[in-house]
Every structure is written in structure tokens, then in C-alpha cells.
């Protein structure tokens, strides 16, 4: 290459200095919150489940989880979680279908989703008080059914402080959560799929059985797992509603760590560790199935 041709070439651009990105600063509060209130307490619970009061490693706390009373508490909690998750999925899906694909007026969708966003986070003592005031022995609905229609709910065996009563209470936040999750999935159902099925001679039932439900199935199963975990970990609503009359795991855990004569913090850690394992499995199933359903929609 001659000196003239070399001079004709453009000069290389000046090297840019690496700039410090401040984009990560925005997630610092989230990371700090997650570490302080999620990761560190979880690690403390896990390590405490395998230690005795002297701080030594032990498996006694885990072995104590297999006591008949604790196994029964886990079994009741699982039954309540399964029942509320199943009914929440069923009723929530029907509501979402009616709004998205059922031909209801468009103005119904916005109020339903707004209410679902609020009700899905309404739990604890206010929810327990609301259901006691509604379905308690002197609740509004109980008295209306008894005085106006001659229907005695408690005479028929219903009790708000029971398995059925707690399941009914949990449905207040399970159904709205199902509506919020499944509505985008129903929105993602393409019209071309329904038209193609109709052209091939499929009935509405055949379309839902062979096309729609197989596509929505991962979302439905994943949401069921999420609702199960959401119900299994609820403690404030259950304790405020039933007190100690219903022996479920969150109430049993509260009894072990609140400081009375039954106090055994390390057994409480073990109970919490068992809940973490169960809810962790449910959430893993939800995330995995959710990813599969999103691939289908794309």
C-alpha cells in the first residue's frame, strides 16, 4: 500500500470510554427487599429446622414432622388448598370465558378485572371479619335465609369455622386471582384457530376439546398449582376466622412460635420448612407450565 492510498483511508474513530451504567440502581430497592425479607428469613428457617436449641445439627425436628397430629394438619391443609384451588380455577375460568369469549357487553370486563385486582389481595383479618359478618351464626346472609326463606344453614350442617367454611372464605381471593391469570390466555386464543376448526366441520364442543383446551391446559394446570400454593401459605385469614378450632399447618406453626407453653421454635422452623418445600414445588410447576403455555400462544 502506497503512502497516498494510506492517507486516503478514513481515520479510525476515537476509542470511547466505558460509561458507568446507573440502570442497575433502579432495582437496588427490590434486591434489598428480596434479600432482607425473603432470602435471609428463608435461609434462617431452613438452618433452624436442622438445629437444636444448643445450635447443633440434628434431624429430630424433621423426624417430629411425622407425628400423627402434624401429618393430620398437613393433610387438612392440602385438602383445603386443593378444594379452594379447584373451585377457584373452575369458577374463575367460567367468569373469564364469559367476559372474553362469551359475548357479554364490553363494559363488564373493566369492572370485573378491577374488582379482581383488588379482591385477589384482600385477605387476613378484614376478610375473616367480612365472612363472619356474612355467614356467621348471626351473619347477614344466615339471618336472611333463616327469616325470609326458612333455610337454616347451621341446622343443615354448615359451619363457617370448618373445612367448608374456610374453603369458602379462600374462594374470595382465589377466584379473582384465577380471572386475572387466565384472561390474558383467553385473549391469546387466535380467531384463525376457531375458523379453521369450523371449516373442517368441527363443532364448538370438538373445538374446545381438541384445540382450545389442549392449548390452555398448561395455563390451567399452572394456575391450579399457583392457587394451591397461595392457599396453603395463608395464615392470617385462617387464624382470624377459626382460631385454634381447625388444626391446619399455618395455625400449628403459629402455636409453636408465639411464645406460650407449646413453644418449640425449632419444630416451628421444621413446620415452616415443610411448607416451603410444598409451596416451592407448586410454584415450580406453575412457572414451568406457564412457560410452556406462553410458547404455544407465541
Automatic annotation (TrEMBL):
The keyword Transport applies. InterPro entries: MetI-like, MetI-like_sf. It is found in: Cell membrane. The chain crosses the membrane at residues 22-45, 57-76, 83-104, 124-145, 157-186, 206-229, 236-257, 269-289. SUPFAM superfamilies: MetI-like (SSF161098). GO terms for cellular component: plasma membrane. It comes from the Bacteria. GO terms for biological process: transmembrane transport. Keywords: Cell membrane, Membrane, Transmembrane, Transmembrane helix, Transport. It is a multi-pass membrane protein. CDD domains: TM_PBP2 (cd06261). Coiled coil: none annotated. Gene3D superfamilies: MetI-like. Residues 74-286 form the ABC transmembrane type-1 domain. Belongs to the binding-protein-dependent transport system permease family. CysTW subfamily. This is ABC transporter permease subunit. The lineage of its organism: Bacteria, Pseudomonadati, Pseudomonadota, Alphaproteobacteria, Hyphomicrobiales.
Amino acid at each position: 500500500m502506497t503512502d497516498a492510498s494510506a492517507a486516503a483511508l478514513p481515520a479510525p474513530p476515537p476509542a470511547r470510554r466505558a460509561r458507568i451504567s446507573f440502570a442497575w440502581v433502579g432495582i437496588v430497592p427490590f434486591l434489598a427487599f428480596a434479600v432482607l425479607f425473603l432470602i435471609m428469613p428463608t435461609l434462617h428457617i431452613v438452618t433452624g429446622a436442622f438445629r437444636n436449641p444448643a445450635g447443633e445439627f440434628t434431624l429430630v425436628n424433621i423426624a417430629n414432622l411425622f407425628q400423627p397430629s402434624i401429618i393430620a394438619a398437613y393433610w387438612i391443609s392440602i385438602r383445603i388448598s386443593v378444594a379452594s384451588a379447584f373451585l377457584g380455577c373452575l369458577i374463575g375460568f367460567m367468569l373469564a370465558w364469559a367476559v372474553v369469549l362469551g359475548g357479554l357487553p364490553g363494559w363488564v370486563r373493566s369492572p370485573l378485572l378491577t374488582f379482581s385486582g383488588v379482591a385477589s389481595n384482600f385477605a387476613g383479618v378484614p376478610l375473616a371479619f367480612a365472612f363472619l359478618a356474612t355467614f356467621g351464626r348471626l351473619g347477614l346472609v344466615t339471618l336472611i335465609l333463616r327469616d325470609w326463606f326458612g333455610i337454616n344453614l347451621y341446622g343443615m350442617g354448615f359451619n363457617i369455622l370448618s373445612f367448608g367454611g374456610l374453603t369458602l372464605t379462600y374462594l374470595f381471593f382465589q377466584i379473582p386471582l384465577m380471572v386475572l391469570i387466565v384472561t390474558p390466555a383467553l385473549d391469546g386464543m387466535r380467531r384463525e384457530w376457531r375458523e379453521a376448526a369450523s371449516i373442517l366441520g368441527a363443532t364448538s364442543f370438538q373445538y374446545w376439546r381438541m384445540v382450545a383446551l389442549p392449548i390452555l391446559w398448561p395455563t390451567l394446570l399452572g394456575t391450579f398449582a399457583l392457587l394451591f400454593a397461595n392457599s396453603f401459605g395463608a395464615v392470617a385469614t385462617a387464624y382470624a376466622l377459626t382460631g385454634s378450632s381447625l388444626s391446619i399447618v399455618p395455625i400449628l406453626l403459629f402455636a409453636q412460635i408465639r411464645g406460650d407453653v407449646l413453644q418449640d421454635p425449632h419444630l416451628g422452623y421444621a413446620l415452616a420448612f415443610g411448607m416451603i418445600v410444598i409451596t416451592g414445588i407448586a410454584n415450580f410447576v406453575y412457572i414451568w407450565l406457564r412457560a410452556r403455555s406462553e410458547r404455544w400462544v407465541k
